[in-house]
Structures are given as C-alpha cells and as structure tokens.
C-alpha cells in the first residue's frame, strides 16, 4: 500500500486541510511523541483553520530516539489521528507539523529554529523525567550526565539544555521575545521550566549565566498549562486497521480517546496561535485545574495501573472493570482528594471523578497498565504525595494515597531490575526483604522519591506498611475486607 505523503495525497485527489505551501514555522516543539501529535498538533491545526493563519506551522524535535523523525519525514510531517470510544469522530489527517528534526543528531537545527525570529512559541512534551529534576531540591539535577554535558558546552541533548542554548542563540540573533509552554503533567509546569532554566544559567560561567538570565527575564514567558487526553502507544495492528480505513499507509498514526482539554495560563511574551478557537481555555490561574487533573485523573490512573498489574490486568479498562480496583479509586477520589484540593470554579468534583472513571473504562482504547505504570518514581510525587501530605496536615488519614504508594512499591519489588523507570537501577539495589514489607517499605521510603517529612511521618509510613502487607499476602483480593466508598 502507498505511504502517506503530500505527493500520495495529490495523486489520490486529496489534500491536507492546511495550505502547506504557505505554512511557516512559528512553533518549535520539543518531544514529538504520540501525546503531542494527538493534542497540541491537532489544536494548533484547528486554531489555524479557524482564523486562516499560516504562521503557526510546527518544527518538531524528537527526544533520544530518531524513530518519529523516521516515521514522519517520508510523510512530509503528515499523520492521522484516530479516536476510539464513545463519540469517536472519523480518522482525520493532521497537517500542522512542517518538519521533524532528530534532536540529538541535529542539535544545530534545533537551536537555529529556536533562534528564528518567526518562532514565537516553544512547546514541550518531554515527560516528567525529561526535565531532569533533582528530587531533593526541586531544581535542575546538575549530576545528571546529560545536563552536565550540556553545561560543559557539548551540543545540547536535554530539553532544558536545548532551551537554554536556543535562547542564547536567539539573544545573539536579536530575534525577539518568545513564550515557552510546558505541556507535561507536573505541578506549576511553567514556573518549574523557568526555575530549571535558571538553574542551568546559574551553573554557567558567571558572565554567560547573567546574560542568559537577564535576556530571559526581559524576553521570555513561561505560562502554566494543564493538558488532558489519554493517548496509548500505537500498535502494529492499529497501523494496519488505520491503513484499511484511510487508504494510505501511515507509520506515524496515533490513536486517542475522543476527550481533549487544554487549559493555558494567559501570559505570553509575544504572539501566539488562537488556540481558544480550537477549544483551549485561557485563564489567569491554572493551578486548580492542574491539581484536579493530577490528583484525580493521573493519581487514579496510577492506582489502576499498579493494582491492575498486581491482579494480572493488561489494560486500564480491564483494571477499572475489576470492582476491587474501581472501589479503591473511588475511595481515593471521594474520601481523600476532593477534601484536600481547591476545585476550579464551576467544576463539580464528584461528577469530574465519575467522568474520569468512565474514561478509564473506555474498552476501545487499549491503554496498557504497563505504560501508565512506567516511570513511577517521577509520577508518584506530583500525583499522590501532595494528597497524602495535605490529608495529614488536615489531621486525616491518607489511607488511599498510602494504598497507591504501597501498590507502586509492590510493583517495584516484583519488577526488580526489569522496572521501566529512570531510577530502576537504584531501586533494584535496595533490600526487598520478605513479603511483610518490614524491609522494603522503609528502604523505599528513604529513596529520593519521598520528601523527608512525609517519609518520617509514622501515620503515613504505618499505612503504607499496612497496605504493602495486605497486597503481598493476598494481592488485590486483600482489598475486599477494607471499607471502600
Ligand atoms: C497517564 C497519562 O501514562 C500516564 O501516566 O496517566 O499519560 C494520562 O493518560 C494523561 O495525562 C491523560 O491526560
């Protein structure tokens, strides 16, 4: 079957929605994975279609592997989005990505795009671990080998290194102000990105660091955003099915749930796409949106993933169809999270919780428990530990967030060196001990994932140890005797 490309479309009498001859790069995107293709790339195309602009074409940059470049370059950046589940619309072609640059292989290309005056926005979806956060300080991890190499002047490969070196090049080119939009599931992701960049500047020779800091303060903005859409990894059989329906072979196809949401802090340093016409919400304060999403949806997702894996469920939908697991997620949301967060005005927390469970139950999505369970050391903190700390502060038991932490610990111990996590090596080296958790729980509580205050709180550690013992003795069956909401 013929591969998707501009020429193949033309030969078939079809055309992309955007006028590709007129499209110019206005956005550089770092981290071109499935999520951005199903979210930011689509909303950017819709924004341009709404107002007829051609100024927001995307130059997308791959992370470590050039795989997405190899998928999209022969296709002129074109790919399809296929929605799965209730309300799914037909497969659509997305044409907002003008080019894909392999970041590590072409660092000069990345810096040149960031330094181009036509670029006004840099967006990021580099996942939690991409930021290289030092868990002890919350700042940039200067001990990380990639960060250290970027600081030493090598062609940058980490996202913060690419951003810092790109901004320096932009200053040299006098290319004008720019907005950096983080789209990762981390609290206050805009301020975080600014802080990590400042950490990079601080570690440069003094004069160079000062120049970067002052140019950034005067010319860059870092709005916070909340992004939401469940996007599983595309499988080989997805590609075959999409090819049948679309009529051309798309190696870069993505699948996603129909739901999509983007809440963006209205704080830009220069022009931006009219994303509101594509359904994005602009607000002065993203924090309540982000807390609801991280602590309800993402926390619930992680809990389903860890308990689901323990119970032998391959997908999130199978996990949440298991009443023992769904009950635990409802308890986490209703008895713990909703009492500890300030909700965005107009959002009904209980209804939001129910809608999240319905989205998890989407049987057509095939979102795997293994995928959601990956990188737990980076996800537990933003998703669950703030809830535990807030419950303790309010004098309440963090019973259900402790269950989620214990389920993660059980997963860590059972997976051993096979764990899919940047800290896999360090975690596997900890003593696992026996099934009662007397060794594993205190050892894991001392790892970098847990703030020392929380790890030292005996109410919290006692609950985690309790749940670890329950799960080790009886697996998810052990939850049956425990009250759920
Ligand atoms: C998931 C998220 O993989 C994960 O950790 O919890 O990717 C989740 O699907 C999205 O944040 C939904 O918006």
Automatic annotation (TrEMBL):
UniProt feature coiled coil, ranges: none
Keyword Heme: no
Gene3D superfamilies with a match to the protein in the record: N-(1-d-carboxylethyl)-l-norvaline Dehydrogenase, domain 2, NAD(P)-binding Rossmann-like Domain
Domain Mannitol dehydrogenase N-terminal, first and last residues per copy: 26-276
Gene Ontology molecular function, alphabetical: oxidoreductase activity
EC number: 1.1.1.-
Ranges of residues in domain Mannitol dehydrogenase C-terminal: 285-426
Keyword annotations: Oxidoreductase
InterPro entries cross-referenced by the UniProt entry: 6-PGluconate_DH-like_C_sf (IPR008927), 6PGD_dom2 (IPR013328), Mannitol_DH (IPR000669), Mannitol_DH/Oxidoreductase (IPR050988), Mannitol_DH_C (IPR013118), Mannitol_DH_N (IPR013131), NAD(P)-bd_dom_sf (IPR036291)
Reaction equation(s) it catalyzes: D-mannitol 1-phosphate + NAD(+) = beta-D-fructose 6-phosphate + NADH + H(+)
Name of one Pfam family that matches: Mannitol_dh_C
Name assigned to this protein: Mannitol dehydrogenase family protein
């Amino acid at each position: 079957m013929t591969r998707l490309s501009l020429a193949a479309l033309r030969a078939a009498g079809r055309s992309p929605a955007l006028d590709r001859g007129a499209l110019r790069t206005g956005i550089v995107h770092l981290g071109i994975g499935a999520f951005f293709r199903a979210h930011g790339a689509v909303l950017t195309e819709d924004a341009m279609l709404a107002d007829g602009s051609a100024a927001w074409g995307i130059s997308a940059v791959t992370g470590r592997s050039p795989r997405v470049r190899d998928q999209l370059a022969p296709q002129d950046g074109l790919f399809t989005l296929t929605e799965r589940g209730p309300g799914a619309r037909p497969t659509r072609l997305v044409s907002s990505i003008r080019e894909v640059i392999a970041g590590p292989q072409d660092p000069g290309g990345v810096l040149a795009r960031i330094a181009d005056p036509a670029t006004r926005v840099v967006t990021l979806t580099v996942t939690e671990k991409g930021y290289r956060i030092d868990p002890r300080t919350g700042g940039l991890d200067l001990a990380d080998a990639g960060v250290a190499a970027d600081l030493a002047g090598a062609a940058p490969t980490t996202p913060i290194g690419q951003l810092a070196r790109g901004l320096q090049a932009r200053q040299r080119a006098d290319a004008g102000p720019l907005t950096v939009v983080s789209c990762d599931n981390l609290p206050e992701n805009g301020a975080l990105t600014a802080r990590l960049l400042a950490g990079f500047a601080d570690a440069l020779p003094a004069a160079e660091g000062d120049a970067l800091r002052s140019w950034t303060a005067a010319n860059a903005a870092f709005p916070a955003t909340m992004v939401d859409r469940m996007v599983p990894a595309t499988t080989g059989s997805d590609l075959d099915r999409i090819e049948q329906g679309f009529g051309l072979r798309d190696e870069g196809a993505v699948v996603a749930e129909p739901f999509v949401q983007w809440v963006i802090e209205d704080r830009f340093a220069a022009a931006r796409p009219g994303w509101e016409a594509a359904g994005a919400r602009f607000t002065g304060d993203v924090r309540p949106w982000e807390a609801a999403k991280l602590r309800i949806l993402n926390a619930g997702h992680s809990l389903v993933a860890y308990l689901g894996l323990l119970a032998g469920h391959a997908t999130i939908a199978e996990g949440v169809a298991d009443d023992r697991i769904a009950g635990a997620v409802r308890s986490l949301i209703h008895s713990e999270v909703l009492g500890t967060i300030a909700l965005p005005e107009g959002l009904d927390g209980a209804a939001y919780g129910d809608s999240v469970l319905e989205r998890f139950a989407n049987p057509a999505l095939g979102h795997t428990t293994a995928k959601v369970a990956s990188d737990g050391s980076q996800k537990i903190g933003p998703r669950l530990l703030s809830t535990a700390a807030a419950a303790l502060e309010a004098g309440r038991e963090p019973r259900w967030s402790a269950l989620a932490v214990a389920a993660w610990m059980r997963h860590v111990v059972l997976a051993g060196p096979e764990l899919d996590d940047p800290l896999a090596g360090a975690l596997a080296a900890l003593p696992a001990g026996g099934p009662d958790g007397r060794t594993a729980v205190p050892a894991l509580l001392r790892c970098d994932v847990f703030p020392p205050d929380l790890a030292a709180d005996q109410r919290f550690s006692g609950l985690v140890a309790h749940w670890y013992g329950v799960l080790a003795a009886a697996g998810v069956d052990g939850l049956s005797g425990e009250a759920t909401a």
